[in-house]
Write a structure and sequence with these properties.
This protein is mainly alpha-helical. The chain contains 34 helices and eight strands.
């Protein structure tokens, strides 16, 4: 205690504690860090590394303190954040305290060790400018992920101070897995080992050379071996290979069929050819397209488990087998935009997210079966002009993600229509609307949604609510914790541990009446045939909840529990159906209700549902084709469509759906057949652009002599 008494009165130490306390309190009031979770842990890791480094270098070294005294000084600094969060959890609504504590500990405990050993290395190696050198090393450590992001393919990173980044904020679920724990252990032990080796040598040159050599060894051997850095060789060892075309190197799972590989090659070259014409650019390089087996592999080997990503400066796109046929064109647009944008990242001027994503949406201007201008127009009527139309660049991540993408795409689409490709490229490159177009982005948006004198129907309003209802990540309640618990529930259901899944979902619903968890819990009760519980659960729900999925569950619960419903109940929902899929779902229920078969249909397994639909499929019930398409193969549903002599929206939409499914499975013959049989006159307006693109693709297939086998 004598050592501690030397400095306990020092204002310097109190000042460090105050800094940590003020930052901890400030984090309570910021959008994402108000929750005790990953983001707050990253900030605290950085701050504690900095503050403990000051203690180790300036206070401990200067005063010659014992190890016990140093621990007693550092410990309060570490305890401030969890103490503040404990009070937060007691006196206000917050996420799980233990959820945040585990992120805090996995970040802060190793970082304190790294800070200590780095300080000792500096003390042993340098006689002067120690704190400046410490700050310089900290700067290098913190900016190093930028170099990884720029020069490596992956978007995740592991870091001694910032500890981990998953790739994008779209991945709400962030797991503390064995790879992360291993990295924290290796990094801490690595700094300890360097400190030990330096203490054994007397040469000042060797003391500088040792850490440099070991860091190089780490990046060349240790990091790739344990998956902290992903190499092409690691992909190969994990079942991936390369197929080549004239313009692409396509990395994909080795076990794909020859037909699917050929389809992937053709699909890539088709979209590239179209986008080159659309943007009026040439391409003289090969683009690397990484197609991962599934989202899990994408998260493991690349990061960004949910979102597909392009790296324009590296001419790389990263998708998965489940998404490549729907997102490839979007990601390729990011690559081709590099031909008229700015180094070093080759994206829109000012890193404007509205322009970056807007150009990609414009390149493939279709969305579900909806007319994008009409959908956005309906959204502006519902939400109010001030809150929806007049959103500036910085609001991109503060609004619904789907809305932001479509709004940006509509603006770029309108620029292209009114001003041409050259002006579009200039706006993208500079980010300057006023000097290039003498107008603003919002003025263009208003003009686009008001053009055509659209009268917004109830269906349009219902669709806009349905598609744009979810909150953006930064406005969600406890997004990391909720995602973690939801993943546990999904895993429990997959393991048929329904009791555990029920407990988890009930815990989620206590603090958050999120429709996702309401529907998940209702599905769990339905799957376990607890129909009475399902009825009482849905009846207790807040009457203000108008989500169509939940309203549908409430009516279904009455049917399944043997209570009376009327056709009117489903007809009311049909008036607010957002798209064709819900039309079919509701019309199917109404049909089976009138037949007295609705309870059998709702409670039946898929094979029974399929049998019921097939037995009742007539010219007047063709809407049954849409739920049938989810119960059988594209080939079978197409064959069934041919038994319906009269074309209408349902038959043609299902044929188009079959064509889309055939592409994704590599069945080119089925694709061509389904497309040739589709009568576009009966398709919904929002599906016409998809049909026209498929027609162009079908024509392109006959010229697919551009690829070379590896």
């Amino acid at each position: 205690m004598t050592d501690l008494a030397k400095i306990i009165h020092r204002r310097e130490l109190i000042f460090l504690y105050l800094i940590q306390l003020l930052v901890s309190v400030l984090l309570l009031f910021l959008p994402i860090t108000r929750y005790f979770s990953y983001e707050s842990a990253v900030i605290n890791s950085f701050l504690i590394f900095l503050l403990t480094g000051h203690i180790f270098l300036n206070i401990s070294a200067r005063e010659g303190l014992s190890a016990g005294a140093v621990i007693l000084i550092v410990l309060p600094l570490i305890l401030i954040e969890p103490t503040v969060r404990l009070f937060q959890s007691i006196f206000s609504e917050s996420c799980s305290y233990l959820h945040g504590l585990k992120f805090f500990l996995i970040g802060v405990i190793p970082v304190t060790g790294v800070s200590f050993f780095l300080s000792q290395i500096i003390i042993l190696t340098f006689a002067r400018y120690r704190y400046v050198i410490f700050l310089a090393v900290l700067f290098v450590i913190v900016v190093e992920p930028i170099f990884q992001f720029y020069f490596l393919s992956q978007v995740f990173f592991y870091n001694p101070v910032l500890f981990f980044f998953p790739g994008t904020i779209y991945d709400e679920l962030l797991k503390i897995d064995s790879r992360l724990l291993l990295h924290r252990a290796i990094i801490t032990l690595g700094f300890a080992g360097i400190c030990f080796l330096i203490g054994k040598v007397k040469s000042s040159k060797l003391r500088i050379l040792i850490p440099v050599v070991l860091v190089v060894i780490y990046y060349l051997t240790v990091a790739p071996f344990f998956g902290f850095i992903i190499t092409k060789d690691m992909l190969r060892r994990n079942g991936y290979t390369i197929s080549k075309t004239q313009n692409f190197l396509i990395y994909h799972p080795v076990d794909l069929s020859k037909q699917l590989i050929e389809e992937l090659k053709t699909f890539h070259e088709f979209h590239l050819a179209e986008l080159k014409d659309k943007f009026e650019v040439t391409v003289s390089y090969q683009i690397s397209s990484y197609i991962y087996k599934n989202s899990f592999d994408k998260g493991k080997f690349f990061g960004s488990e949910k979102a597909d990503i392009a790296k324009p400066w590296k001419k790389e796109i990263h998708t998965s087998l489940g998404t490549v046929f729907s997102t490839l064109r979007h990601e390729l647009a990011h690559i081709l935009a590099s031909e008229f944008s700015n180094p070093p990242f080759y994206v829109a001027g000012g890193f404007n997210p509205w322009l970056i994503e807007g150009l990609a949406v414009f390149s493939d201007f279709s969305f579900d079966d909806q007319e994008i201008p009409r959908l956005l127009s309906a959204a502006s009527k519902i939400s109010g002009d001030e809150t929806v139309i007049n959103q500036g660049t910085l609001s991109f991540f503060q609004t619904n993600t789907r809305y932001a993408y479509l709004k940006a795409g509509l603006i770029l689409n309108e620029i292209h229509k009114q001003y041409g490709t050259a002006k579009l490229k200039n706006v993208y490159r500079t980010g300057d609307f006023r000097s290039n177009l003498n107008t603003t982005a919002d003025e263009i948006f208003i003009e686009a949604i008001l053009s055509g004198n659209r009268s917004i129907a109830l269906r349009d309003s219902a669709a806009s609510v349905y598609y744009f209802k979810s909150k953006p990540f930064i406005l969600k309640n406890c997004p990391r914790f909720q995602a973690e618990k939801n993943a546990e529930a999904v895993q429990a259901i997959g393991n048929h541990d329904y009791a555990l899944a029920e407990n988890i979902l009930q815990e989620l619903l206590k603090n958050n009446a999120d429709e996702r968890y309401i529907v998940a819990y209702a599905n769990l009760l339905e799957e376990t045939r607890r129909y009475e519980d399902l009825y009482f659960f849905t009846e207790r729900l807040d009457k203000e909840i108008t989500d169509i999925n939940i309203q549908l569950k409430k009516i279904d619960a009455k049917v399944l529990s043997g209570r009376n419903v009327s056709e009117k109940d489903y007809n009311i929902l049909l008036l607010s159906s957002p798209n064709l899929r819900y039309d079919a779902v509701l019309k199917t229920r109404i049909f089976f209700f009138n037949k007295g078969l609705l309870r059998a249909y709702l409670s039946g397994i898929d094979s029974l549902k399929k049998t019921l639909i097939l037995s009742e499929l007539y010219d007047s019930t063709v809407y049954l084709l849409l739920p049938l398409s989810n119960l059988t193969s594209p080939a079978e549903v197409l064959e069934i469509c041919l038994t319906i002599p009269k074309p209408d929206t349902w038959t043609e939409y299902v044929k188009l759906k079959a064509a889309r499914g055939a592409i994704a499975s590599g069945n080119r013959t089925l694709f061509k057949t389904a497309l040739e049989l589709t009568n576009s006159e009966y398709l919904p307006p929002g599906a016409i652009s998809d049909y026209e693109q498929f027609v162009r693709y079908s024509n392109f297939i006959s010229t697919d002599n551009f690829y070379e086998d590896q």
